Amino acid sequence: MHKIIFTDIDGTLLGPERDLTLPTIEQFKKINHIPLILVSARMPKQMYHLQEKLNIAGAPLIAFNGALVTSEEKTIHSTEIPLETVKALVEFNEQNSEEKIHLSLFNHNNWYVEEMDYWANREQSNTKITPEIKPNKEVIELWKHEKKGAHKIMCMGEVAFIDKTFKFLEDTYGDSLHLYRSKDTYIEVANKEVSKLTGIKILLKEKYPDFTLDDVIAFGDNYNDVEMIGAVGHGVAVENAREEVKAVAKAVTKHHKEDGVAIYLKNLFK
Binning pLDDT at 50, 70 and 90, where does residue 73 land? Predict the structure, then answer.
């Protein structure tokens, strides 16, 4: 029935200090015969320290909400935002010099910011990883040479400017981009072809062919988890989850700050 576990990280697996708690680590040790896959909007590098604490270093990862799937740090699947789209967003931001927002540009384990501003420092504090400082236009030139796009773009800034950027992206690229607002000051941008669920399907096919979606137990809390929680055999929402997640979940566990995932697994695998 429950043969493989997929879990979101932020707001789901991590405790009040934005890190793994001892009870969570201990619980996963008890069920280490069951594969555990972290599935997140984060880049792979921002998940390695968590994998090490869970004793699953090198295990498969679903990063950037499904845009990148890896195993033993090798790429199984990759879907990028086209470079022309990245360039158009950078140019739109430059035109609004009085109202510029912060752009974080990601490809695999590279994270670029123009400066260590409030937003970059906040993300660094949350994820324990330091970005590389490089002007957006230089990143575009580098990626042009390397024939790359972005696995994810993070837009962060004041609400009014984020609203304006969201409208630009929705009007221009609504058919090809997935725009996800976890907060009113954030937009996470990914290719519309991918999601956490597409990442799970790819990983099952490539690494766990004997398992089906019915064999999956998954945990989540936010809008980007809705599809995953609704589609797997046993989708579980944490108590702090959005109502949309709870609506499609098979069960609701305790708050992420109360070790909800660990408590649910402890009861499930008695």
Answer: confident
CA 87 from centre of chain:
23
Angle, helix 83-95 to helix 159-173, in steps of 10 degrees: 140
- pLDDT tens for residues 191-209? 999 999 999 999 999 999 9
Q: Tell me the torsion sign for CA atoms 48, 50, 55, 60.
A: negative
Query: Rounded CA gap, 171 and 189, in Å?
Result: 14
Using alpha carbons, select from 204, 207, 246 the residue that is nearest to residue 225. Answer: 246
Crossing angle, helix 136-146 and helix 83-95, to 10 degrees?
Answer: 170
Q: What is the pLDDT of residues 158-168, one digit of tens each?
A: 999 999 999 99
pTM of the model: 0.94
Give the contacts of 106 (CB within 8 A, at least 6 positions apart).
43, 64, 112, 150, 151, 152, 153, 154
